Write the structure tokens for this entry.
Amino acid sequence: MRQPKKFNPHPFAYHQEIEVEITALSNLGVGIARVQLDTAATEKPKVSLPGMKKPKAQSAQLEESAESDNGEEIDKGWVVFVPHTLPGEKVLTRIYRNDKNHSQGDFVEVITPSPDRVTPQCELFTKCGGCQYQHFAYDKQLVWKTRQVEELLEHMAGVETEVSPAIASPKEWGYRSKITPHFKKPRDGKIESIGFLLAGQRSKLVDVTHCAIAMDEINDALPAVREEARANTGRYKRDASLLIRATEGRVETNHKNTISETVRTDNGDVKFRFLAGDFFQNNPFILPAFTGYVADQASSGGAKYLVDAYCGSGLFSLCLAHKFDTVAGVEVSETAAEWASKNAELNGITNTTFLASSAEAIFGDISFPAEETAVVIDPPRKGCNQEFLDQLFEFAPSKVVYVSCNPATQMRDLKEFLTAGYKLTAVQPFDLFPQTRHLECVIVLEK
């Protein structure tokens, strides 16, 4: 292939193939190797520190990954990132990019495999960007995810503490209750690939006819949903996504239709109704253990009152309500707060109230005594903004249970809690997303 015009030829030539040994995994699920270079020809590489401006989005992510692996200046050699590889493996990689402190290579072949390497269940693995770990034995996925939380704690928050082993999903495959396949705007009346982003790409799609981590109902419906989209190309004037969501043994494809999900608790089943297009956790099989842990942590220590910030349609508020005298769910979305109220009524739960608050006054209507109150927060991937944290610290609850789908931003926020006088008492990862690099992490903080 012709060398790209802007390719930096140092330290490796374009498409140069080299053998490397993988020593770790980044928080993007990419293998990390270190190669010794001629120091006279190449300046000693340094990893950018948190908060420094990075040149391009993909490189920024990879640099952050190297940082999470080591957290300090990398002095063990030039870093080479190789996807679809495992620690302990010797592999052949083909270099396609050299950045200021690392190189990126395509995976060519395994020379010496890891004993933890297994056969992927999906023929699209390494092509579809949805999964990163299908080649990784599941018990070892859990070990590595736990280790990554430990490293993020140490190197982003400056905390060395015990991290409980990641709790496994009851189902390793066929667990996702929702997928959203994408496709490009029709050309000449034809829709081409319907699926997910090609691994390592930002716009190219791979055609997906079956998803190994999606529930059976979704895969049963997928062919007909794809066919309907292709038969109605006139509906789509731009790039689009399809919704396929499992609910009560069937699938729903209309974002505006109401669906149901039931979560088992130690106080009986709790049923939730919400719009198919709204957010709800996509692995229903682990939700009893997940919400049960949050309930136990929030209620231990004798708190009588609970505030559920970012409450959505009421998942934590309603699953935890039997542990508290009174629960207040807070949401900036009026629609979500209305669904939470309806779900409380649906389940006959009478000790909850739901408030649609402005972002500037999240705790303005909360009258609970702070010393007897626990707060559960489950923010989006970007974490908590400073405005929210300032309000939370001013309210000063006795305990905070922080749930996050992005431990990196969670550890960033943890530093704010420590400065505000909270201590970290528990760290528990949950694997809601087997075969992928993603996880949920619960940290417990006490005033």
Remarks:
- Residues 12 and 150 are 33 Å apart (CA to CA).
